[in-house]
């Protein structure tokens, strides 16, 4: 919709029509021819002025209006209406008139500088000045004219750019060996260097140039061939003379023996290269050989010593590039498969003929020499650079060499054919890597060394050692629970059957143990725990060799070897977790049955942790699912036990040894300091639920709870998060175990009610038998406690020694929590109930933990700052008399309310300086923009002129080239026509 007055075009047309400006194209020819000369020019200029004024009036952007904040009648504000376009145009015009001439004449001078020779020298007379100027002018003229002087007597006769004055010395001139073989034409051309038969102008034809090039090429080729022949002759001469000095270099000192060795092999061994030696060793050996041959005692010269050192020095060999992780895994898998084939071949007793093809594929194997000569004569010690083709099993059986044992040969006598079979074993010595070393160490009883060289594994010895850690287990009667799910996976029947199989396999292993050297090298990757148990039972593998089996399974099924291997390894994580929990359950069953600790079970659990940790690092999402599934199963078992009755003796409310092992695994493998974590957060919630909801009924319950508290201390060491359930459990455990009289129990109960601590198991019937009867003091112990035995203790059993051990553990954990929360602002509220409890009981009143806790509470109380009101007097709000402007209101005066006139003037001056500075900066910035535009235009003009110049030159060259080609074509046509005639 057009504004008032119509559109811009309609307004323009109406303005033009009203001002009398018409389109001259619409006028008739007669009307256009009426005016002429100066009158027509003046009319055109006036017409253009009217048009520009009309157009400028119609453009709304030619004016910039600043609307004032307050409209005051009769006030005119300077600068309220501005014309930015006109201001910019006028500024550019002023700069073209003032700044541009200064820029163009910045390097010009308007004064004359007299640079004549001697003009500024006051010591010279005018005659001397004129004489010097005359001489300088003559020199300049002579220098300019010398370039075109053809009568110069200093010309030197040259040939091919070289002066002929130096040809008097004929020693530098190479004369031909046979003049008869030289080309007469070439001799003539060389001798007649002054011209004669040559072209007088000195120009050579193309054929002469090519002839010289070919001659030079042949000459250099012949020279290279001569040098090659000379080198070959010298090499052959050295090879022929090498036999004469070989004995001096390599022969050793003869060993004085009663009789010389008659064995040809022994005689040959004396001339074998003795091994790597450099420096003094090489000198000694070479000197010994020389003295043996020549019989003189003269010292060797430095040259001979140097030659012998070079002979003994080994050459550097290029190293192969470092292999990637995938390539290393593939090599290890290939090595294990080859070793398994060799083991099966030895087990079947195959002959060497059947394995010839495999030997040929492997690049050839060592061959042993047979006969009586192999045992006679002196035997030289093996050197580092000896080849394997002279290796002998002198006096040793293959079993002793490869570490395979006596096998079926009980008498120790091994047939020679069996020795050859053992000698053909695939990587028995060549691939001496950590698996073979681990197998031998497992055979000697150290199964943990199998994981010693893994870079991505940690030291988890603090978990597995049953003697040095707090180990707690589940109830013996828990296996009869019908509604409790087994945490190791599978059903109870299958688990019990696997336990039977494991026991049977262990009995078989005792009767016929499978050593580490007889272990298979290849195993299938089990997808379930049952498959793993079947695999171990099938091969009759001893428990101490389980880590070696797991390592070989991981190596053979590395993720880079096959596409489905990563899914197999992800399933293997759950299998290893189940197997670790299986052995923890075995340890509890063994403890309950025999009363002795099952140390091997915890050692196996410890050896499985590095594999679980490594796989969890590789596949964190899948490992988290496995662990969270186990934690969820434990939570469901807890809910079922609580629903059955928290105080029921048959209700499984506390975790057993397998469950505690799982909780320890989670805290070891996953980070526990994160605020939110997919595994450790459910772990913390589950531990809190155990400590907060499970009831204390027996010694095993107390042991399980104390182990959970120790897990809390270990997991929260970095984050120091508050865990009130652990402190409440410690309060209840100490209140149940410590000896308290009636008054003490009343005080403890009132303290618990005051601080809101739940104590449902204190001073009740089912926990009465757990209280210590004597008043002997109990101290916090730092020694490891045998908690597996406490786990498996009978519920009716109330051994005072066990109760005292539990109380000492509780005191030690109280000290640990006190250290953990020492910097907390609620330290007093957290540990005051525990301090009151420890001071009330006669068993703990004299303990160091109670004294330390009381001292820390006192320090926390003294350092605490209570809330208080402000200490200073209240300051009243300042009141002032209103200030009135005596000069009247003036909106233009910015400092109207300032009564200080001098300060007002200073502020005005500062404002003016600021305004002028901003204006100067703005003008300088515009000047720089103008100069940059001018330089850009000049550069563009120079580029244009340069381009035109180059185009002109190229055009000229193209024309000349065109004419040259035309001339060449014309010459060719003339020659062709002449040839036809």
TrEMBL record:
GO terms classed as biological process: maturation of SSU-rRNA
Q: Which GO terms describe its cellular component?
A: Noc4p-Nop14p complex; small-subunit processome
Coiled coil ranges: none
Basic residues compositional bias: what residue ranges? Answer: 972-981
Question: Where does it reside?
Answer: Nucleus, Nucleolus
Record keywords:
Nucleus, Ribosome biogenesis, rRNA processing
Keyword Glycoprotein listed: no
Region annotation Disordered: where it falls in the sequence: 1-45, 99-129, 175-206, 273-302, 314-388, 404-459, 473-513, 959-981
- InterPro entries, alphabetized: Nop14
Q: Where is the composition biased (Basic and acidic residues)?
A: 314-350, 960-971
Q: Which family does it belong to?
A: Belongs to the NOP14 family.
Q: What does this protein do?
A: Involved in nucleolar processing of pre-18S ribosomal RNA. Has a role in the nuclear export of 40S pre-ribosomal subunit to the cytoplasm.
Protein name as catalogued: Nop14-like protein
Q: Which organism was this protein described from?
A: Pseudozyma antarctica
Lineage, please? Eukaryota, Fungi, Dikarya, Basidiomycota, Ustilaginomycotina
């Amino acid at each position: 919709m057009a504004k008032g007055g119509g559109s811009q075009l309609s307004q323009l047309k109406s303005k033009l029509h009203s001002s009398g400006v018409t389109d001259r194209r619409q006028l008739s020819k007669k009307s256009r021819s009426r005016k002429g000369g100066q009158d027509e020019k003046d009319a055109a200029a006036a017409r253009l002025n009217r048009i520009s004024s009309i157009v400028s009036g119609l453009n709304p952007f030619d004016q910039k209006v600043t609307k004032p904040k307050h409209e005051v009648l009769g006030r005119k504000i300077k600068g309220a209406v501005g014309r930015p376009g006109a201001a910019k145009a006028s500024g550019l015009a002023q700069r073209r008139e003032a700044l541009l001439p200064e820029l163009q004449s910045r390097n010009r001078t308007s004064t004359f500088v007299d640079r004549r020779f001697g003009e500024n020298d006051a010591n010279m007379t005018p005659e001397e000045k004129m004489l010097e100027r005359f001489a300088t002018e003559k020199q300049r003229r002579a220098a300019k004219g010398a370039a075109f002087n053809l009568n110069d007597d200093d010309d030197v006769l040259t040939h091919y750019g070289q002066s002929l004055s130096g040809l008097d010395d004929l020693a530098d001139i190479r004369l031909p060996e046979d003049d008869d073989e030289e080309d007469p034409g070439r001799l003539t051309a060389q001798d007649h260097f002054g011209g004669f038969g040559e072209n007088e102008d000195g120009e050579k034809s193309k054929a002469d140039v090519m002839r010289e090039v070919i001659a030079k090429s042949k000459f250099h080729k012949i020279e290279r061939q001569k040098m090659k022949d000379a080198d070959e002759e010298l090499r052959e001469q050295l090879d022929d003379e090498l036999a004469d000095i070989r004995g001096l270099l390599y022969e050793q000192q003869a060993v004085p023996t009663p009789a010389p060795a008659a064995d040809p092999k022994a005689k040959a061994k004396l001339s074998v290269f003795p091994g790597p030696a450099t420096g003094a060793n090489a000198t000694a050996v070479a000197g010994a050989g020389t003295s043996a041959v020549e019989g003189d005692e003269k010292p060797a010269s430095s040259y001979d010593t140097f030659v012998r050192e070079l002979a003994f020095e080994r050459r550097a060999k290029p190293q192969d590039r470092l292999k990637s992780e995938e390539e290393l895994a593939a090599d290890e898998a290939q090595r294990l498969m080859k070793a398994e084939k060799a083991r099966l071949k030895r087990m079947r007793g195959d002959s060497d003929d059947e394995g010839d093809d495999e030997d040929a594929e492997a690049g050839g194997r060592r061959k042993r020499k047979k006969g009586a000569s192999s045992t006679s004569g002196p035997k030289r010690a093996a050197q580092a650079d000896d080849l394997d083709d002279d290796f002998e099993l002198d006096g040793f059986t293959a079993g002793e060499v490869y570490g395979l044992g006596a096998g079926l040969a009980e008498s120790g006598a091994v047939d020679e054919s069996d020795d050859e079979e053992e000698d053909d074993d695939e990587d028995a010595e060549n691939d001496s890597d950590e698996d073979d070393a681990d197998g031998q160490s497992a055979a000697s009883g150290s199964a943990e060394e199998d994981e010693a060289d893994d870079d991505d594994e940690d030291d988890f010895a603090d978990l597995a050692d049953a003697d040095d850690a707090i180990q707690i287990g589940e109830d013996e009667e828990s296996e009869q629970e019908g509604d409790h799910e087994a945490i190791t996976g599978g059903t109870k029947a299958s688990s019990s059957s696997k336990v039977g199989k494991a026991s049977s396999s262990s009995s078989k292993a005792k009767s016929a143990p499978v050593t580490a050297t007889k272990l298979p090298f290849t195993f299938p990757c089990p997808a379930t725990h049952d498959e793993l148990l079947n695999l171990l039972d099938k091969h009759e593998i001893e428990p101490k060799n389980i880590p070696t089996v797991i390592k070989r399974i991981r190596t053979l099924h590395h993720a880079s070897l096959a596409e489905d291997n990563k899914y197999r390894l992800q399933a293997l994580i759950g299998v290893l977790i189940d197997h670790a929990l299986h052995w923890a359950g075995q340890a509890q069953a063994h403890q309950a049955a025999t009363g002795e600790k099952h140390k091997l079970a915890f050692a196996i659990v410890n050896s499985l942790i590095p594999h679980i940790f490594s796989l969890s690092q590789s596949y964190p999402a899948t490992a988290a699912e496995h662990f969270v599934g186990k934690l969820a199963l434990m939570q469901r078992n807890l809910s079922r036990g609580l629903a059955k009755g928290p105080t029921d003796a048959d209700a499984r409310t506390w975790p057993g040894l397998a469950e505690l092992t799982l909780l320890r695994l989670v805290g070891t493998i996953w980070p526990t300091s994160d605020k939110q974590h997919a595994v450790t957060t459910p772990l913390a919630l589950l531990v809190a639920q155990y400590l907060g909801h499970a009831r204390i009924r027996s010694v095993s319950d107390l042991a399980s709870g104390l182990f959970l508290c120790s897990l809390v201390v270990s997991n929260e060491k970095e984050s120091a998060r508050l865990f009130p359930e652990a402190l409440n459990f410690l309060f209840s455990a100490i209140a149940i175990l410590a000896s308290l009289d009636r008054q003490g129990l009343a005080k403890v109960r009132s303290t618990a009610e005051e601080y809101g601590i739940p104590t449902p198991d204190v001073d009740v019937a089912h926990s009465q038998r757990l209280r210590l009867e004597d008043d002997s003091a109990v101290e916090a112990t730092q020694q490891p406690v045998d908690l597996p035995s406490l786990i498996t203790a009978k519920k009716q059993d109330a051994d005072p020694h066990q109760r005292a051990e539990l109380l000492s553990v509780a005191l030690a954990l109280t000290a640990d929590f006190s250290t953990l929360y020492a910097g907390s602002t609620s330290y007093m509220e957290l540990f005051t109930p525990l301090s009151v409890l420890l001071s009330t009981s006669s068993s703990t009143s004299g303990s160091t933990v109670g004294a330390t806790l009381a001292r820390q509470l006192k320090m926390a109380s003294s350092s605490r700052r209570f809330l208080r009101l402000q200490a200073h007097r209240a300051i009243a709000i300042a009141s002032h008399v209103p200030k009135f402007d005596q000069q009247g209101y003036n909106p233009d005066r910015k400092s109207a309310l300032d009564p200080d006139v001098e300060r007002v003037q200073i502020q005005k001056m500062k404002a003016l300086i600021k305004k002028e500075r901003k204006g100067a900066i703005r003008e300088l910035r515009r000047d720089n923009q103008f100069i940059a535009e001018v330089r850009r235009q000049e550069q563009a003009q120079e580029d244009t002129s340069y381009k035109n110049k180059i185009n002109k030159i190229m055009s000229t060259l193209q024309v000349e080239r065109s004419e040259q080609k035309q001339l060449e074509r014309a010459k060719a046509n003339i020659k062709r026509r002449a040839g036809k005639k």
